[in-house]
Queue: 2 jobs
Job 1
Amino acid sequence: MDCQQARGWIMTRRKDCFSSVTIALLLCGLSLPAVAQESAPAAETPDYSQHRVRSSAGLVAADHQLASEAGAAMLAAGGNAADAGAAAMLAVGLTNPFASGLGGGGFCLYREADTGETTVIDYRERAPGAAHRDMYLVDGEADPQLARHGGLAVGVPGEAAGIWSLHGRFGQLDWERIVDPALNLAREGFPVGATLARHLQTLAPTLEEWPELKAVFTREDGELVEEGDILVREDLARALELLRDEGVKPFYTGAIAEASVEAVQQAGGILTLDDLKRYQVAIREPVTGTYNDFEIISMPPPSSGGVALIEAFNILEGFELESQAWDAPAIHLIVEALKHAFADRAAHLGDSDFVDVPVERLISKEYAAQLRETIEFNSTKPIDAYGSTAPSDDPPGTSHLSVVDAAGNMLACTTTINTRFGSLVYDPDFGLIFNNEMADFNIAPGQPNLYGLMGNEQNAVAPDKRPLSSMSPTLVLKEGEPFMSLGGSGGPTIITGTYFTMVATMIFGRDLLDAVSGPRMHHQWLPEQLFVEFDNLPFAPGLVERGHQLQTRRAYNAVQAIMRQPDGSWTAVSDPRKGGIPAAPAPSESTEDHQPQAE
């Protein structure tokens, strides 16, 4: 059966229909971007070379290949990093709908090559106007489920406004051209990836309670789609067509806004047309810090990521780790710095439009020196040595993409609907799956959590407030020149995934693919555990000797990154954990066989 002859939402299960998807990009009148597509040979050590692309003509690293291709097609058409980022974000919201989309929001950093200025676009979701501090309390006790699934979990979406703002400020191509790749994929269909199929199977029991959403991902035989099935999204195509032809107005005052309010309110939510009409992106200044010859440019509050990264690197700067091996003594210090940053995140961070956040103190060298003095080289410390305020819930999810163009413009964008498929609230008219970003607030401020720590008032629910986030889009300069764009997905592990990738490349000089694909670790101060991705890591005994409580946990963090090479070219890596593949706008250098370095 030909791909175009199949009927319904799920057109076919033939994987050879992938060629019909790449035609979607060609429908835009654009040449197909170059992508490393070598098949990994059978080997005991995974060959991740297909997740790396090198180019001097610009690169896009997204967590889905089709999103990378959509962005690279914009570069091939003469667009810049903003054009590529906007197209890639629209595409990844379609191909990875469990993680991001037009029902969500996010953060973008954009650095202009000619001026060296970095602009922060904050299109994070906001609490509805009727939200209040105790809205998730039932008989005086917090009910986390109310903030996870259903209408009360939905914040005011900012994704469409954010993408529109990015393109309007910095883009070069016509807006219609930006939307066309995602629109064509929605109409023509695209192969379901392994990651989407896995998340659907994991969520299958819960989807039974949300039949309209389940129907989107159900084949004609009644089964959920599997890897290789061709998924057509006629519902989302209607939204994308309006976005292409009318801009963002329909999302905030028009037909899509009306349908969104109806869907959310029918699910018990409090979103109103006035909430959507009043939504605006916030343009902010980045937080910046230094580590030796590197300048770190990252996201300010309501993100906690930038402050945490800079604080941790300030602590590390006094340890002279460059002279040490990647082993237990160095990793212990790296983890201890991270624990201090997470404890301060819990105590001080929130939406700076609503609360005072001591950013300058937290990212100062003087404060880092004080914390460094408390760190023991051969042992960790009890919980209360780091802080006494309970962290907010910050569940895993999200997508990140990085772009660098031939002119040297750099972009890092992280976008999300929060947990897997967000609130599960779905609008059948226009295909939006709505966020559950309200879960990122501290829903029980002033109450002790299971560790006996008091809930953070800084991140309490308030009308129009943005919840605290771990999203950490980050740019790095080396000796004043562009060096790296990166970020990740996965709740609080976004910070640690980004942090360890930066540590591995900036301090230990490791190859970018090694840094991204190597064994992941995570510590967020609470719980008092160092999570490791694999058993039997050679440095594990040394960490246990220093008092760290190790627990093996499958990683759900995925990092996308682009790094400058000594010859001036760039390398892009999309994390194998999420199956992404980067793309370039023109034939890139062939990637030699690559085996990750032994840890």
Note: The CA atoms of residues 151 and 269 lie 4 Å apart.
Job 2
Amino acid sequence: MSRMTANLLLLLTAFIWGTAFVAQKLAFVGADGTAQLHNGVGPLTFTGTRFLIGALVVAPFAWREGRQQGGSFSVGDWLGFAVCGLALFAGSYAQQVGIILTTVSNAGFLTALYVPIVPVLALLVFKKRPYWVVWPAAACTAFGAFLLNNASLTAFGTGDLWVLVGALFWGCHVTVVGIVAARTQSPLRLAVSQFALAGVLGIVSGAIIEAPTLAAFQASTFELAYTGLLSVGVAFTLQVVGQSHTHPAAAAIILSSEMLFAAIAAAIVLGERMNGLQISGAALILGGIMAVEVMPLLMRRLKPL
């Protein structure tokens, strides 16, 4: 596969992930045009269903990977899979609640704050010193989040806070996945395991707390198919394929466009608009994230042998 093809696959991945924010919002828009936390299918049930769909999509590829690699996992490996699934479920649920209660544009950019969170977690948990650019980038993204909410701390709504909690769990998820994936060398089996666990947790807890109806599932068929089949199943596979055939810096930049696609899709489908202050904040967040992802790679490449 050529690098150009790989980059196009990653761009498609970012497009799917970004536009999925709109689908996650639309699933909870009631007949009166306003978003509701429980619109027949609650956030727990919605999250669980889409991850079970994603698990079914990835399962054949995971089975093939298992046939090719052989061997079995240790108890420690399975525990690692479980931790990944728990973090994935927590991050996805918090994000879903946040998307319902805030704008898609805010959710897209605030979710991306998990990027500078990851190296900070690595420092706190593993005493792994992050690259110096993390600190100014973190300050840049924090100020960007402030501007995104019209330069007012009181403008941070409940939905924004839920998205930020989700970003924290996404940071934990990325950190743990990196460890478990390196240990097991089985990315597809890791993926299907964490998807399945997140799906079961969502479905079971949703059945107890939210009592979803069949009619509600039918009303959300498109949104569940888009976020489960495409966002979880197809996009993940495209990411794995694309990142294996292009430069890491290029992959980081392309995947960062997810938040831009979310804002564009929200403007087209939902009519959301960002003012100048919010656009400035979004630009600061995007710049800080790209600095964290790309600067270390470029510096290592330029470092004399």
Note: Residues 43-69 form the longest helix (27 residues).
